[in-house]
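Backbones bend. Shown next:

***
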Amino acid sequence: MAKVRLGFVGVGNMGQAAHLVQYASLADDSEVVALAELREDLGRKVATRWGVPAVYRDHRDMLAKEKLDGIVAIQPFHLHGAALKEVLAAGVPVLVEKPIGRSIAMGETLAAAADASGAKLYIAYHKRSDPAAIQARQLITQWQQANTYGKMKLVRMSMPPGDWIASGFWHLLKAEAAYPKIAADAPEYADKVADDKYLWFVNYYIHQINLMRFLLGEDYVIKYADPACVVLAGNATSGVTIVLEMASYSTSIDWQEEALVTFEKAWLKLRLFSPLTINRAGELTAYEDAGNGVQPRETRFVQPHLHAMRNQAMQFIKAIRGEATTLCTPRDAIADMKSARQFIDLLLAAK
């Protein structure tokens, strides 16, 4: 099978550490043939380090001169509107960093641009690509279809602030020039205090908002926002209770993110490691109690030596080839933004 030809738009910290390194090491399946980076010195250095043959100052030049099968566009989400509509116009699959935009309106604009060009747009919620999370979703589906353990009752997630980098930036090339000034996308809230709170929530917890929806397999509504911003709660479409525990405590050199999914007679526990951890998937444990004299059992599943960021890259290559993946689509990503809005609106109403 021919290698897919990839172009990169943006090779800053996350562009290098979370994305480029993955595709550069998947040489049997992909080839990074070009990159565009506004900081020209950084673009040249990164291209030299990773053997990328063509370097451009901006995405327009790259799109005009290169024949690409897919594009990885990694820039701060508040700048998505500055380039992504033109990137999507190329009509090839595009992977962008989370969230889909600075606001719900920008998310809908980008989704419409993808529809108009026929491009497939995917948002890089890498936790959906963690092998343990994928297996958890599969088990949830099996239990629901078999109805062996009754109805799903609860999805509870916990993510206290911690060391998300896990020394993952130590090897990065740095830019000598400052990032050029670009007009940011319009905010979600006109009031700056409200919008700053919204940006805080999106920056820190949009991954969990998305993963909650992935595990549920359905949408949900946030109905309670703790004024201290420690807990939020709500219900899924089917009635399942959802809870997100946020900054109840913090860790300095650890990452303690967990999800608990309960049924009437069973549960799943998912532990995820820091986003830039390499060669380590999450951990998944299941407890099953069918009753009727059957001995309950607890199973700890063994995962491959495959981290979420790498599997996300592998899944994007599959998506380019038209194969099914667990990558996040615009519909789910816009739902995440709406959930963030629900949370902030509840906080504002409580004042």
Notes: The first strand starts at residue 4 and ends at 9. Residues 61 and 217 are 40 Å apart (CA to CA). The chain has a mean pLDDT of 95. The chain has nine helices and 14 strands.
